[in-house]
Amino acid sequence: MAGDQVFPVAVVVSLLDAGGTATEVGAVLASRWAALVLFGLFGGVWADRLPRRHVMLASQAFLCCVVMVGLAGVTSAWVLGGMVFLAGAAEAFFRPAFQACLGSVLTPEQRPAGAALNAVSWRVGAIAGPGLGAFLVSAAPVGAAFLAALAAFAVSLCVLLPLREPLVVRTARASAWREIAEGVREVWGRRWIGTVIVVTALQSMLTIAPAQVLLPVLARENFGGDAFYGTSLALLSVGGLTGGVVSMLWKPRRPGLAAIAGLTAYGLVPPALCLSEAPWTVYVCFALAGFGIEVFSVQWVVSLQREVPAERLARVVSLDWIAASALTPLGLILTGPAESLLGSASVLLLAGFAGVALPLTALLTSGTTYFRSKYRPYPTKARKRVEVVSVASHYDHQ
Protein backbone atom coordinates (compact mmCIF):
# COMPACT_ATOMS: atom_id res chain seq x y z
CA MET A 1 0.00 0.00 0.00
CA ALA A 2 2.86 2.40 0.73
CA GLY A 3 4.09 1.89 -2.82
CA ASP A 4 0.64 2.72 -4.21
CA GLN A 5 0.80 6.06 -2.40
CA VAL A 6 4.44 6.97 -3.09
CA PHE A 7 4.15 6.25 -6.82
CA PRO A 8 1.50 8.88 -7.71
CA VAL A 9 3.25 11.51 -5.57
CA ALA A 10 6.45 10.87 -7.53
CA VAL A 11 4.60 11.04 -10.85
CA VAL A 12 2.79 14.29 -10.02
CA VAL A 13 5.91 16.02 -8.71
CA SER A 14 7.90 14.91 -11.77
CA LEU A 15 5.25 16.45 -13.99
CA LEU A 16 5.02 19.70 -12.03
CA ASP A 17 8.80 20.07 -11.91
CA ALA A 18 8.77 19.91 -15.71
CA GLY A 19 6.20 22.73 -15.88
CA GLY A 20 3.07 20.61 -16.08
CA THR A 21 -0.34 22.25 -15.71
CA ALA A 22 -3.43 21.25 -13.76
CA THR A 23 -4.93 19.90 -16.98
CA GLU A 24 -1.88 17.70 -17.58
CA VAL A 25 -1.94 16.48 -13.98
CA GLY A 26 -5.60 15.55 -14.40
CA ALA A 27 -4.94 13.74 -17.68
CA VAL A 28 -2.03 11.75 -16.25
CA LEU A 29 -3.99 10.72 -13.17
CA ALA A 30 -7.00 9.88 -15.35
CA SER A 31 -4.96 7.31 -17.25
CA ARG A 32 -5.09 5.05 -14.19
CA TRP A 33 -8.87 5.08 -14.30
CA ALA A 34 -8.89 4.53 -18.05
CA ALA A 35 -6.94 1.33 -17.47
CA LEU A 36 -9.39 0.24 -14.79
CA VAL A 37 -12.26 0.78 -17.23
CA LEU A 38 -10.59 -1.28 -19.95
CA PHE A 39 -9.37 -4.12 -17.78
CA GLY A 40 -11.53 -4.02 -14.65
CA LEU A 41 -14.22 -6.51 -15.61
CA PHE A 42 -11.75 -8.93 -17.14
CA GLY A 43 -9.59 -8.68 -14.03
CA GLY A 44 -12.55 -9.87 -12.00
CA VAL A 45 -13.28 -12.71 -14.42
CA TRP A 46 -9.72 -14.01 -14.32
CA ALA A 47 -9.54 -13.60 -10.55
CA ASP A 48 -12.57 -15.91 -10.35
CA ARG A 49 -11.05 -18.34 -12.87
CA LEU A 50 -7.42 -18.65 -11.74
CA PRO A 51 -5.74 -19.14 -8.37
CA ARG A 52 -5.87 -15.65 -6.91
CA ARG A 53 -2.35 -15.91 -5.53
CA HIS A 54 -1.01 -16.30 -9.07
CA VAL A 55 -2.94 -13.25 -10.27
CA MET A 56 -1.60 -11.14 -7.40
CA LEU A 57 2.00 -12.25 -7.91
CA ALA A 58 1.90 -11.48 -11.63
CA SER A 59 0.39 -8.05 -10.96
CA GLN A 60 3.03 -7.09 -8.41
CA ALA A 61 5.87 -8.25 -10.66
CA PHE A 62 4.45 -6.15 -13.50
CA LEU A 63 4.19 -3.11 -11.20
CA CYS A 64 7.87 -3.43 -10.33
CA CYS A 65 8.71 -3.26 -14.03
CA VAL A 66 6.54 -0.17 -14.53
CA VAL A 67 8.05 1.77 -11.64
CA MET A 68 11.57 1.06 -12.90
CA VAL A 69 10.82 3.33 -15.88
CA GLY A 70 10.52 6.26 -13.46
CA LEU A 71 14.10 5.72 -12.32
CA ALA A 72 15.24 6.87 -15.78
CA GLY A 73 14.19 10.43 -14.92
CA VAL A 74 11.37 10.78 -17.45
CA THR A 75 9.32 14.00 -17.30
CA SER A 76 7.13 13.73 -20.41
CA ALA A 77 3.43 13.82 -19.64
CA TRP A 78 2.90 11.09 -22.24
CA VAL A 79 5.44 8.75 -20.64
CA LEU A 80 4.26 9.45 -17.11
CA GLY A 81 0.67 8.94 -18.21
CA GLY A 82 1.65 5.64 -19.82
CA MET A 83 3.28 4.51 -16.59
CA VAL A 84 0.17 5.35 -14.61
CA PHE A 85 -1.99 3.56 -17.20
CA LEU A 86 0.06 0.37 -16.93
CA ALA A 87 0.00 0.56 -13.14
CA GLY A 88 -3.79 0.87 -13.33
CA ALA A 89 -3.94 -2.22 -15.55
CA ALA A 90 -2.01 -4.21 -12.95
CA GLU A 91 -4.31 -2.88 -10.26
CA ALA A 92 -7.38 -3.99 -12.22
CA PHE A 93 -6.24 -7.60 -11.87
CA PHE A 94 -4.76 -7.36 -8.38
CA ARG A 95 -7.64 -5.76 -6.49
CA PRO A 96 -10.42 -8.29 -7.21
CA ALA A 97 -8.03 -11.18 -6.57
CA PHE A 98 -6.81 -9.63 -3.33
CA GLN A 99 -10.27 -8.86 -2.00
CA ALA A 100 -11.66 -12.29 -2.79
CA CYS A 101 -8.57 -14.12 -1.53
CA LEU A 102 -8.63 -12.42 1.85
CA GLY A 103 -12.20 -13.50 2.34
CA SER A 104 -11.37 -17.10 1.54
CA VAL A 105 -8.52 -17.38 4.05
CA LEU A 106 -10.63 -16.12 6.97
CA THR A 107 -13.22 -18.12 8.90
CA PRO A 108 -16.76 -16.73 9.14
CA GLU A 109 -16.08 -15.68 12.73
CA GLN A 110 -12.91 -13.83 11.73
CA ARG A 111 -14.32 -11.96 8.77
CA PRO A 112 -15.96 -8.91 10.39
CA ALA A 113 -12.83 -8.20 12.43
CA GLY A 114 -10.74 -9.03 9.38
CA ALA A 115 -12.44 -6.29 7.37
CA ALA A 116 -11.53 -3.69 9.98
CA LEU A 117 -8.02 -5.03 10.56
CA ASN A 118 -7.32 -5.00 6.85
CA ALA A 119 -8.55 -1.43 6.67
CA VAL A 120 -6.25 -0.47 9.54
CA SER A 121 -3.21 -2.13 7.96
CA TRP A 122 -4.04 -0.53 4.61
CA ARG A 123 -4.20 2.87 6.22
CA VAL A 124 -0.89 2.39 8.02
CA GLY A 125 0.72 1.96 4.62
CA ALA A 126 -1.26 4.87 3.25
CA ILE A 127 -0.03 7.09 6.09
CA ALA A 128 3.58 6.12 5.51
CA GLY A 129 3.33 6.42 1.72
CA PRO A 130 2.39 10.09 1.23
CA GLY A 131 4.60 11.17 4.10
CA LEU A 132 7.55 9.28 2.68
CA GLY A 133 6.80 10.52 -0.81
CA ALA A 134 6.55 14.15 0.32
CA PHE A 135 9.78 13.85 2.31
CA LEU A 136 11.69 12.26 -0.54
CA VAL A 137 10.59 14.74 -3.22
CA SER A 138 11.38 17.62 -0.84
CA ALA A 139 14.77 16.38 0.35
CA ALA A 140 16.07 14.37 -2.61
CA PRO A 141 15.64 14.00 -6.37
CA VAL A 142 12.28 12.59 -7.40
CA GLY A 143 13.99 9.37 -8.44
CA ALA A 144 14.32 8.52 -4.75
CA ALA A 145 10.53 8.38 -4.50
CA PHE A 146 10.34 6.02 -7.47
CA LEU A 147 13.01 3.84 -5.84
CA ALA A 148 10.98 3.73 -2.61
CA ALA A 149 7.87 2.70 -4.55
CA LEU A 150 9.84 -0.05 -6.29
CA ALA A 151 11.10 -1.35 -2.95
CA ALA A 152 7.56 -1.39 -1.53
CA PHE A 153 6.19 -3.36 -4.49
CA ALA A 154 9.10 -5.81 -4.28
CA VAL A 155 8.42 -6.41 -0.58
CA SER A 156 4.74 -6.99 -1.36
CA LEU A 157 5.72 -9.55 -3.98
CA CYS A 158 7.91 -11.41 -1.49
CA VAL A 159 5.19 -11.40 1.17
CA LEU A 160 2.73 -13.02 -1.25
CA LEU A 161 5.06 -15.87 -2.18
CA PRO A 162 4.25 -18.16 0.81
CA LEU A 163 0.50 -17.47 0.66
CA ARG A 164 -1.71 -20.56 0.31
CA GLU A 165 -5.37 -20.04 -0.55
CA PRO A 166 -8.01 -22.65 0.38
CA LEU A 167 -9.67 -24.38 -2.54
CA VAL A 168 -12.64 -22.42 -3.89
CA VAL A 169 -15.29 -24.44 -5.72
CA ARG A 170 -15.94 -22.83 -9.09
CA THR A 171 -18.67 -23.42 -11.62
CA ALA A 172 -17.87 -24.61 -15.13
CA ARG A 173 -16.08 -21.96 -17.15
CA ALA A 174 -18.22 -20.03 -19.62
CA SER A 175 -17.29 -17.23 -22.00
CA ALA A 176 -15.86 -14.10 -20.42
CA TRP A 177 -18.87 -12.02 -21.45
CA ARG A 178 -21.30 -14.54 -19.97
CA GLU A 179 -19.38 -14.52 -16.71
CA ILE A 180 -19.46 -10.72 -16.68
CA ALA A 181 -23.23 -10.87 -17.22
CA GLU A 182 -23.55 -13.14 -14.18
CA GLY A 183 -21.80 -10.51 -12.09
CA VAL A 184 -24.16 -7.83 -13.40
CA ARG A 185 -27.16 -9.99 -12.45
CA GLU A 186 -25.82 -10.32 -8.92
CA VAL A 187 -25.77 -6.54 -8.58
CA TRP A 188 -29.07 -6.00 -10.40
CA GLY A 189 -30.83 -8.43 -8.07
CA ARG A 190 -29.91 -6.26 -5.09
CA ARG A 191 -30.84 -2.72 -6.09
CA TRP A 192 -29.25 -1.11 -3.05
CA ILE A 193 -25.86 -2.48 -4.09
CA GLY A 194 -26.23 -0.97 -7.54
CA THR A 195 -27.40 2.33 -6.09
CA VAL A 196 -24.43 2.63 -3.77
CA ILE A 197 -22.03 1.73 -6.57
CA VAL A 198 -23.48 4.47 -8.81
CA VAL A 199 -23.57 7.09 -6.06
CA THR A 200 -20.00 6.50 -4.95
CA ALA A 201 -18.84 6.57 -8.56
CA LEU A 202 -20.54 9.94 -9.09
CA GLN A 203 -19.03 11.26 -5.88
CA SER A 204 -15.60 10.17 -7.09
CA MET A 205 -16.10 12.08 -10.33
CA LEU A 206 -17.67 15.26 -8.96
CA THR A 207 -16.03 15.60 -5.55
CA ILE A 208 -12.90 13.53 -5.12
CA ALA A 209 -11.46 14.06 -8.60
CA PRO A 210 -11.53 17.89 -8.43
CA ALA A 211 -9.96 17.81 -4.98
CA GLN A 212 -7.28 15.39 -6.17
CA VAL A 213 -6.33 17.52 -9.18
CA LEU A 214 -6.39 20.91 -7.45
CA LEU A 215 -4.76 19.83 -4.18
CA PRO A 216 -1.15 19.72 -5.52
CA VAL A 217 -1.69 22.93 -7.49
CA LEU A 218 -3.16 24.87 -4.55
CA ALA A 219 -0.50 23.41 -2.26
CA ARG A 220 2.12 25.33 -4.24
CA GLU A 221 0.02 28.43 -4.79
CA ASN A 222 -1.55 28.96 -1.36
CA PHE A 223 -0.14 26.56 1.22
CA GLY A 224 3.63 26.64 0.96
CA GLY A 225 4.55 23.75 -1.33
CA ASP A 226 4.62 20.00 -1.81
CA ALA A 227 4.87 19.23 1.91
CA PHE A 228 1.25 20.39 2.31
CA TYR A 229 0.22 18.03 -0.49
CA GLY A 230 1.82 15.01 1.12
CA THR A 231 0.67 15.95 4.62
CA SER A 232 -2.94 16.29 3.50
CA LEU A 233 -2.89 12.82 1.97
CA ALA A 234 -1.21 11.42 5.07
CA LEU A 235 -3.86 12.93 7.35
CA LEU A 236 -6.57 11.48 5.13
CA SER A 237 -5.03 8.13 5.97
CA VAL A 238 -4.68 8.98 9.66
CA GLY A 239 -8.42 9.62 9.73
CA GLY A 240 -8.97 6.36 7.89
CA LEU A 241 -6.83 4.49 10.40
CA THR A 242 -8.91 5.91 13.24
CA GLY A 243 -12.11 5.02 11.41
CA GLY A 244 -10.88 1.47 10.91
CA VAL A 245 -10.07 1.05 14.60
CA VAL A 246 -13.46 2.45 15.62
CA SER A 247 -15.20 0.14 13.16
CA MET A 248 -13.58 -2.88 14.81
CA LEU A 249 -15.56 -2.10 17.97
CA TRP A 250 -18.67 -0.34 16.67
CA LYS A 251 -21.57 -2.33 15.25
CA PRO A 252 -24.26 0.17 14.22
CA ARG A 253 -27.88 -0.96 14.13
CA ARG A 254 -28.27 0.69 10.74
CA PRO A 255 -24.96 0.00 9.00
CA GLY A 256 -26.06 1.54 5.72
CA LEU A 257 -27.05 4.80 7.38
CA ALA A 258 -23.72 4.95 9.21
CA ALA A 259 -21.87 4.24 5.97
CA ILE A 260 -23.69 6.93 4.00
CA ALA A 261 -23.09 9.46 6.78
CA GLY A 262 -19.40 8.61 6.54
CA LEU A 263 -19.36 9.28 2.80
CA THR A 264 -20.74 12.78 3.24
CA ALA A 265 -17.66 13.78 5.26
CA TYR A 266 -15.60 14.09 2.07
CA GLY A 267 -17.84 16.98 1.09
CA LEU A 268 -15.94 19.08 3.63
CA VAL A 269 -12.64 18.84 1.78
CA PRO A 270 -13.23 20.92 -1.39
CA PRO A 271 -14.72 23.95 0.43
CA ALA A 272 -11.87 23.87 2.93
CA LEU A 273 -9.33 24.09 0.11
CA CYS A 274 -10.87 27.26 -1.30
CA LEU A 275 -12.30 29.01 1.77
CA SER A 276 -9.60 28.49 4.38
CA GLU A 277 -6.18 30.10 4.51
CA ALA A 278 -5.13 28.05 7.53
CA PRO A 279 -3.53 24.70 6.67
CA TRP A 280 -4.80 23.10 9.88
CA THR A 281 -8.41 23.57 8.75
CA VAL A 282 -7.75 21.63 5.57
CA TYR A 283 -5.87 18.99 7.55
CA VAL A 284 -8.83 18.48 9.88
CA CYS A 285 -11.22 18.12 6.94
CA PHE A 286 -8.98 15.54 5.28
CA ALA A 287 -8.79 13.59 8.54
CA LEU A 288 -12.59 13.65 8.92
CA ALA A 289 -12.99 12.55 5.31
CA GLY A 290 -10.65 9.63 5.88
CA PHE A 291 -12.55 8.62 9.00
CA GLY A 292 -15.85 8.68 7.13
CA ILE A 293 -14.51 6.75 4.17
CA GLU A 294 -13.30 3.95 6.41
CA VAL A 295 -16.59 3.74 8.29
CA PHE A 296 -18.31 3.38 4.93
CA SER A 297 -15.75 0.84 3.75
CA VAL A 298 -16.07 -1.56 6.66
CA GLN A 299 -19.87 -1.54 6.61
CA TRP A 300 -19.85 -2.00 2.83
CA VAL A 301 -17.39 -4.87 3.13
CA VAL A 302 -19.33 -6.76 5.77
CA SER A 303 -22.55 -6.34 3.81
CA LEU A 304 -21.08 -7.57 0.53
CA GLN A 305 -19.58 -10.58 2.26
CA ARG A 306 -23.05 -11.56 3.40
CA GLU A 307 -24.71 -11.06 0.03
CA VAL A 308 -22.35 -12.17 -2.73
CA PRO A 309 -21.60 -15.83 -3.58
CA ALA A 310 -17.93 -16.79 -3.52
CA GLU A 311 -17.69 -17.81 -7.16
CA ARG A 312 -18.97 -14.39 -8.33
CA LEU A 313 -17.35 -12.22 -5.72
CA ALA A 314 -14.44 -10.90 -7.76
CA ARG A 315 -16.76 -9.93 -10.61
CA VAL A 316 -19.00 -7.91 -8.31
CA VAL A 317 -15.92 -6.20 -6.90
CA SER A 318 -14.83 -5.41 -10.44
CA LEU A 319 -18.20 -3.84 -11.23
CA ASP A 320 -17.75 -1.59 -8.23
CA TRP A 321 -14.33 -0.61 -9.48
CA ILE A 322 -15.32 -0.10 -13.09
CA ALA A 323 -18.21 2.19 -12.16
CA ALA A 324 -15.79 4.55 -10.45
CA SER A 325 -13.19 4.00 -13.16
CA ALA A 326 -15.60 4.99 -15.92
CA LEU A 327 -16.57 8.30 -14.32
CA THR A 328 -13.53 9.41 -12.33
CA PRO A 329 -11.37 10.10 -15.43
CA LEU A 330 -14.01 12.55 -16.63
CA GLY A 331 -13.72 14.41 -13.35
CA LEU A 332 -9.93 14.40 -13.50
CA ILE A 333 -9.78 15.56 -17.11
CA LEU A 334 -12.53 18.20 -16.84
CA THR A 335 -11.32 19.76 -13.60
CA GLY A 336 -8.56 21.73 -15.34
CA PRO A 337 -10.82 23.27 -18.02
CA ALA A 338 -13.56 23.89 -15.45
CA GLU A 339 -11.06 25.66 -13.21
CA SER A 340 -9.95 27.84 -16.12
CA LEU A 341 -13.56 28.70 -16.95
CA LEU A 342 -15.12 29.09 -13.50
CA GLY A 343 -12.18 29.50 -11.17
CA SER A 344 -10.95 27.07 -8.56
CA ALA A 345 -13.25 28.42 -5.83
CA SER A 346 -16.44 27.78 -7.82
CA VAL A 347 -15.30 24.31 -8.87
CA LEU A 348 -14.47 23.34 -5.30
CA LEU A 349 -17.71 24.72 -3.84
CA LEU A 350 -19.75 22.75 -6.36
CA ALA A 351 -17.66 19.68 -5.59
CA GLY A 352 -18.39 20.07 -1.89
CA PHE A 353 -22.13 20.28 -2.51
CA ALA A 354 -22.06 17.13 -4.63
CA GLY A 355 -20.03 15.36 -1.96
CA VAL A 356 -22.82 15.80 0.56
CA ALA A 357 -25.93 15.61 -1.63
CA LEU A 358 -25.08 12.53 -3.68
CA PRO A 359 -24.63 10.04 -0.81
CA LEU A 360 -27.88 11.16 0.78
CA THR A 361 -29.81 10.26 -2.38
CA ALA A 362 -28.79 6.61 -1.92
CA LEU A 363 -31.01 6.43 1.16
CA LEU A 364 -34.05 6.69 -1.11
CA THR A 365 -33.45 3.12 -2.35
CA SER A 366 -34.97 0.33 -0.29
CA GLY A 367 -32.37 -1.67 1.58
CA THR A 368 -29.71 1.04 1.72
CA THR A 369 -30.33 2.01 5.35
CA TYR A 370 -29.49 -1.51 6.52
CA PHE A 371 -27.33 -2.61 3.55
CA ARG A 372 -29.54 -5.67 3.27
CA SER A 373 -32.29 -6.98 1.02
CA LYS A 374 -34.64 -9.93 0.88
CA TYR A 375 -33.23 -10.98 -2.48
CA ARG A 376 -31.84 -14.51 -2.74
CA PRO A 377 -29.48 -15.45 -5.58
CA TYR A 378 -30.52 -18.00 -8.14
CA PRO A 379 -29.23 -21.54 -7.47
CA THR A 380 -25.54 -22.18 -8.00
CA LYS A 381 -23.28 -25.19 -7.72
CA ALA A 382 -21.20 -23.49 -5.06
CA ARG A 383 -23.04 -21.98 -2.12
CA LYS A 384 -20.10 -21.17 0.04
CA ARG A 385 -19.79 -17.46 0.70
CA VAL A 386 -16.70 -15.45 1.32
CA GLU A 387 -16.25 -11.83 2.19
CA VAL A 388 -14.84 -8.84 0.48
CA VAL A 389 -12.08 -7.55 2.75
CA SER A 390 -10.79 -4.16 1.66
CA VAL A 391 -11.39 -0.46 1.80
CA ALA A 392 -13.73 1.38 -0.62
CA SER A 393 -12.28 0.78 -4.01
CA HIS A 394 -12.42 3.93 -5.81
CA TYR A 395 -10.91 5.84 -2.91
CA ASP A 396 -7.59 4.14 -3.02
CA HIS A 397 -5.74 6.75 -4.73
CA GLN A 398 -5.98 9.00 -1.78
From TrEMBL:
SUPFAM superfamilies tied to this protein: MFS general substrate transporter
UniProt KW Cell membrane keyword: yes
Protein name: MFS family permease
Keyword Membrane included in the entry's annotation: yes
PANTHER family in alphabetical order: INTEGRAL MEMBRANE EFFLUX PROTEIN-RELATED, MAJOR FACILITATOR SUPERFAMILY ASSOCIATED DOMAIN-CONTAINING PROTEIN
GO cellular component: plasma membrane
Molecular function in Gene Ontology: transmembrane transporter activity
Pfam families membership: MFS_1 (PF07690)
Organism: Streptosporangium saharense
